[in-house]
Write a structure and sequence with these properties.
The strands form three sheets. The chain has a nine-stranded parallel beta sheet, with helices on both faces. A four-stranded antiparallel beta sheet has the order 4-5-6-7, with helices on one face. It is globular, with a radius of gyration of 21 Å. With 354 residues, the protein is α/β, with parallel strands linked by helices.
Length: 354
């Protein structure tokens, strides 16, 4: 009896090899079509990150959302968070598969007390029913992933809190305020980790999108790695796996990642799009599962070139256990699914080569 796509991914997540490198794609990066059906029939596994394992509620926080069109006909969505100590707001412009963020919560130092109040009053109620029902309905074509949330410091950059430039200035001018809020977020992440550990989920991501050129190795070692380690310890006690979305230039922090409690490095994008090849990553992260993102720049090439690039990526990789190929970034609409088919053809060729 042949293995289902999800089973192949799970084998790889446990450092195994099912005879072919699994191929995955995020749930929102593929739409129903004849080619999509063909790819799924050939073993494509969808990674669904939309099903929660809990409900999030807030005490003494009122959330108001509304949409509007400006004079040019552009649509915007405003979200206002009101608390007894003040309010913060965000403004986004939906743009198809993505959105443009025009406004984040932090606008002045007065916002720190509001942000802290919201974080302190965020609570989680375990609810595994949606997850169980979703897995039952999906069968073996979809793997569901839980989320711990962003790392405490990364929360200031990757979420609604603060844009990158403000964070850089505030890290120098108001570090105590940032670390005070980060400590609150860190405790909340531990609460979420325990819920995930008790849930039906096999694996979860903890943050990601770290930009080493901004964060630096010292800050990463001091404020990121310990957070991974403590959450990994909680999950490992229940047989669950923890990963992080590292899709940038990772060479500066590669050794730190290797020493962390993370089980897998997710969205790792090999050269030419970053500063590390798959061969380098395999050597440095020999104890980690590598859940790759196929380099976005290569999607622009012809099918035969994409297939060839897939083969060349693995030419110095003898042991294919613990490796998953994935699509975690946007693809050119006119090329995406054709590129995916070429990647899968390349992976099939690797299988036949042994």
């Amino acid at each position: 009896m042949s293995l289902k796509p999800r089973e192949r991914v799970e084998i790889a997540l446990r450092h195994g090899y099912s005879g072919i490198i699994p191929f995955t794609i995020y749930e929102h990066k593929i739409k129903p079509s004849a080619l999509e059906r063909e790819l799924r029939n050939c073993g494509l596994c969808i990674v669904n990150r939309t099903v929660p394992v809990c409900r999030t509620v807030y005490n003494d926080v009122k959330i108001t959302k509304y949409g509007y069109y400006d004079d040019a006909g552009k649509y915007f969505e405003k979200c206002v968070w009101s608390t007894p100590v003040g309010e913060v707001s965000s403004l986004i412009e939906p743009a198809g598969f993505t959105s443009w963020v025009h406004e984040k919560w932090f606008k002045s130092k007065d916002d720190y007390k509001v942000i802290k109040f919201i974080m302190e009053n965020e609570h989680y109620i375990p609810d595994f029913t949606p997850w169980i029902k979703a897995e039952e309905a999906a069968g073996g074509d979809i793997i569901f992933r839980a989320a711990v949330g962003s790392e405490p410091l990364q929360s200031f950059i990757s979420s609604n809190l603060m844009d990158m430039q403000d964070f850089c200035y505030e890290w120098m001018d108001s570090r105590d305020e940032i670390l005070d809020i980060a400590a609150v977020i860190r405790k909340k992440r531990l609460e979420m980790a325990q819920i995930i550990a008790d849930s039906p989920a096999l694996h979860a991501n903890y943050g990601g999108n770290v930009t080493p050129e901004i964060i630096g190795k010292e800050v990463f070692d001091k404020y990121y790695v310990p957070c991974y380690d403590e959450v990994a310890d909680i999950l490992h006690k229940k047989g669950k796996l923890l990963g992080c979305h590292f899709d940038a230039n990772n060479k500066l922090i590669a050794g730190s990642i290797a020493r962390s409690g993370l089980d897998y490095v997710e969205a790792f994008t090999p050269a030419p799009d970053t500063d590390m090849s798959l061969e380098e990553a395999r050597r440095i992260w020999k104890d980690k599962v590598l859940w790759l993102n196929f380099p976005s720049s290569l999607h622009l090439k012809k099918d035969e070139e994409v297939e060839k690039a897939t083969l060349e990526m693995f030419q110095n990789i003898d042991d294919k256990s613990g490796i998953i190929m994935g699509i975690t970034e946007d693809m050119p609409p006119e090329r995406g699914l054709f590129s995916c088919r070429a990647i899968m053809n390349g992976l099939a060729s690797l299988c036949s080569l042994g």
